[in-house]
Amino acid sequence: MPAKDLYHDAVKNALIKDGWNITHDPLILSIGKKDLFVDLGAEKLIAAEKSNQKIAVEIK
After folding, report:
1. Based on CB atoms within 10 Å of each CB, which residue in 22, 27, 43, 52 is the most buried?
2. Which DSSP helix (H) or strand (E) runs through 18?
3. To 5 degrees, how large is the angle CA 21–CA 9–CA 51?
4. Model's pTM, two decimal places?
């Protein structure tokens, strides 16, 4: 698992303040026998009658 970036906590806090729910820290995507690590996975409810938006954030 990769080390956290210098800006990891700042980006995570900014997403939380903007109303995003952090669902994964880190987000691990498995493709076949390979695992890909994305820094954060998050989702945000748009409206009661709409589906959720989801994002994966790679911090560089």
Report:
1. 27
2. none
3. 15
4. 0.71
How many whole angstroms separate alpha carbon 55 and alpha carbon 22? 10
Instruction: List the one residue out of 5, 15, 6, 24 whose CA is nearest residue 44.
Output: 15
For the segment 8-59, what is each residue's pLDDT rounded down to a tens digit? 999 999 989 988 888 888 888 899 999 988 888 888 765 544 567 788 787 7
What single-letter DSSP state applies at residue 49? T
Q: What are phi and psi of 16, to 5 degrees?
A: -65, -45
CA distances 35 to 2, 6, 20, 25, 26, Å, are 12, 23, 25, 15, 12
Residue type, 43: E
Residue with tokens 């700042």: 10
Q: Within 10 A of 41 (CB to CB), how many other CB atoms are there?
A: 19
Q: Which two tokens stand for residue 53?
A: 């938006």
